[in-house]
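Hello Y.,

Per our agreement to keep a running log of every chain we model this quarter, I'm adding this entry. I've kept the format consistent with earlier entries: sequence first, then predicted structure.
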Amino acid sequence: MYHHYQTHNTYDSDDHTTLDDDRTVISSSEDDTSMEDTDSESIQEYDLDVTDRVYFADQHFLDEPKIHGHYYLGTVNEDGILPRFMDISVSPSTFFQFAYHEIVRYLRFYSIHWRPIKPTVDILQLIIINQEYQVIQKTYWLRLVQRHWRKIYQEQQRVWQIRKSSKNLRHRELYGRNLYGGNSLPGLQGMMAVYSSNKRSNEE
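Predicted structure for the entry above:
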């Protein structure tokens, strides 16, 4: 027991060194925590700085009244209730002036609604009814158009490969027609007709 008491109360050189080492470790830990806090604050300040720069670049567009029937880049309310309403929009010039993630951060922090997750930027057609900014999301249809356009383009390339082949050129000289699969060149007109057919079928 006496030895145990003496160990805790004797300030010899070895114990003092150990105490200094402990203090050094604690000080180092506090420095690391301070550096982490500083880095976190710097990141937050950077985010706010970028967001504010987007805001100042687009402030006039944000404040001006929007026009019925026009198209806008922006976000909608995410409560799942129809009709959907415009939340916040950004001008095309500002959209292309900044990086996409900076635009998304701006739309999130300057939204009239709190968003726990990053919003999606959509192409919106504005429909003003009783001073309410209702919107029709066009991004979905744009993706469908792009998907079908890629299919049409690939089919056109396939047809042109057939037409340029030496075998097809010889066949055309003899018979006045291209080989099978090379006579009809698909175009963009009517490429979305399948959706009209499905709509008519559903209505019937």
